[in-house]
Amino acid sequence: MLQQSENNGEPDANIIDRWSENHIDEEVTESIANQNDDILEKYLDDQKFPFVELDGELKNIVGSFKLLPVMMGAAKNLVGIKELLDAIVKYIPTAVGREEDPFSALVFRIDHDKKFGKVSGVRFFNGQLFAKDIIRNKTQDKDEKVNQIKRFKAGKFEDCSTVGAGDIAAVFGLTDAKVGDVLGTGNLVPHEVKLNSPLLTVQVKAEKDNDYPALAEALSILSAEDPALEFEWLREDKELHVKIMGWIQIEVIEKILEHRFNIKAKFDDPTVIYKESPKTIAEGFARYWMPKPCWAIIKLKIEPGEPGSGVIYSSEVSVNDIQKKYQNEVERTINKALKQGIKGWEVTDLKITLIEGEDHTVHSNPGDFIIATPMAIMNGLVNSGTKFLEPIIWFRITAPDELLGAVTSDIISMRGTFESPSIQNEKFTLEGTMPVSSSMDYPVKLSSRSGGRAKIKTRFHSYVECADEFGVTKLFKGINPLDESKYILKARKALTEGIKGW
Questions:
Q1: What single string gives the DSSP state of each residue in 433-460?
Q2: pTM, entire model
Q3: Beta-strand pair 350-358/311-315
Q4: Taking 60 as the threshold, does the pLDDT of residue 91 lie above it?
Q5: What pLDDT does 496 receive?
Q6: DSSP secondary structure string for all residues of 404-434
């Protein structure tokens, strides 16, 4: 089986079928044709393709991450293992780097060993790595020290002093590493391929209050191991939240917590993850100059961006007004400051420009602009106002044709849209999009309505604007930068527990 990869978090196409030796079936041929104009032209003319031609193009497409091979089998019964190994050799690109080149690698898995602690599985594409080296985590923009390097062999660790291009090894000491982190220069490391986008968030609670610290640690471990699970620990509110794809993931996490960590946990009902985006062009201003010593004055221009554009930052301010090191603080703080907007959700699809500001030769200190930036951003978002963005999923429904009217009515009532259905062999196939918020329980409803005869496939499609009446505003977690006095005290670590309630 092959699965189309995603581009910048956006899925390209559908899951397609299988290939086998000296034969590539019709659906795989169609998917290959969709990636190559020359083959597409021949395919539309019903021309036959030599296996060698299609197989060669398939190798190129897999190598460029436009298609991802998905193999089915069972290791216990040795079913599909030979085919899996053959496919790895044939279709998965090998490292082409050199040991004398700058170091470059990718963290592809995280494990936790009882004896060694956190273990980072690393694939090396360029250069060499030695034990005790200090390496750059390019993704997180920080340095970390390598304590030990070991190779994987027959399910056990084997000591080694160095690894290089083409190797896979276990690296110890990378305490903050996550799956997908690029280490070193990033040369020859394939671009990020993202298969899943969490669409729901759920609060997790320990059944026993004294299990709270252990539950937080367990969720941190699981989040590091699984890139599809995002853990958020709101320490001030003593809340633990995880971002997930769906209900099944909740059941899996619950069982893992119980059997692996001996923790019984409760999960609240999940909430759809909305986002925010500015409505209009506005300016945000912050003056952080009291209590001394401090000095950071900035003015930001905030503009709505194109859908899916994310966050675009630029500066028009001279280094004579704000030194470069302080402008770097502003840029580094932008993404963190946008984690919560005025509606409580992450803010995206916007342009932020630093248009005015000043530092002070005596009073400005490192960190002052880190404190001022969130205040200016929140001030600008209040001035611009924000709109809700809600997650939309693509669906394909196949069901008996007598259910067509009922299904289309369901989709309309869920604020969904659909294309003209195709009908064949007394069954219809319907494709379209619908909001996650109105369709979370629809697969169960559809199965019940059809007596199990209907099938539905879904995947994340995009975030689109929705009316305020369909969005959900949530409370700001922590201290809002709009409450400047309290926020500054907190940022300067001067807000005590006794003061926290005022």
A1: EEEHHHHTTHHHHHHHHHTT--EEEEEE
A2: 0.76
A3: parallel
A4: yes
A5: 61
A6: HHHHHHHHHHTT-EEPPPEEETTEEEEEEEE
pLDDT of residue 448: 92
The class of domain 104-184 in CATH terms is: mainly beta
> Is 276-384+479-491 in CATH node 3.30.230.10?
yes
Q: How would DSSP label each residue in 17-33?
A: --EETTEE-HHHHHHHH
Pairwise CA distance, residues 43 & 27, whole Å: 12
- Cross-strand bridge partners of residue 230: 243
pLDDT in tens, 191-239: 765 556 789 999 999 999 999 999 999 999 898 888 778 899 988 788 9
Tens digit of pLDDT for each residue in 58-90? 888 887 777 877 888 888 888 888 888 888 888
- Domains 200-271 and 388-470 fall in the same CATH topology: yes
* Residue 486 CB neighbour total at 10 angstroms: 16
What residue segments make up the domains of the chain, in order of their start? Answer: 2-91, 104-184, 200-271, 276-384+479-491, 388-470
- Cα distance between residue 51 and residue 48, in whole Å: 9
| Element at 368 (helix H, strand E) | helix 368-384
Instruction: List all residues 6 or more positions away from 49 whose beta carbon is below 8 Å from its beta carbon.
Output: 29, 39, 42, 43
Other C-beta atoms lying within 10 Å of the C-beta of residue 108: 14
* Residue in this structure with the two tokens 């002093």, named with its chain if needed: 161
What DSSP letter does each residue of 453-482 carry, written as one string?
--EEEEEEEEEEEE-GGGS---PPSS--TT
* Residues 370, 375, 380: CA angle, nearest 5 degrees: 125
pLDDT in tens, 125-138: 889 999 999 999 99
**Using a CB cutoff of 8 Å and minimum separation of 24, what contacts does 173-176 make?**
173/144, 173/145, 173/146, 173/147, 173/148, 174/107, 174/118, 174/120, 174/137, 174/144, 174/146, 175/118, 175/144, 176/137, 176/140, 176/142, 176/144
pLDDT at 252: 92
CA nearest neighbour of 102 among 161, 28, 187: 187
Supply the DSSP symbol for 347. B
- How many percent of the chain have pLDDT more than 90? 59
Is the distance from CB of 172 to CB of 115 less than 8 angstroms? no
Q: Mean pLDDT for the chain? A: 88
Burial 410-427 (b: 16+ CB within 10 A, else e): bbeeebbebeebeeeeeb
- 277, 309 Cβ separation under 8 angstroms: no
Closest C-alpha among 194, 389, 385, 386 to residue 273: 389
Token pair recorded at residue 268? 């609240």
The answer to whether residues 432 and 416 touch, using CB atoms and an 8 Å cutoff, is yes
Distance, CA of 352 to CA of 359 (rounded, Å): 19
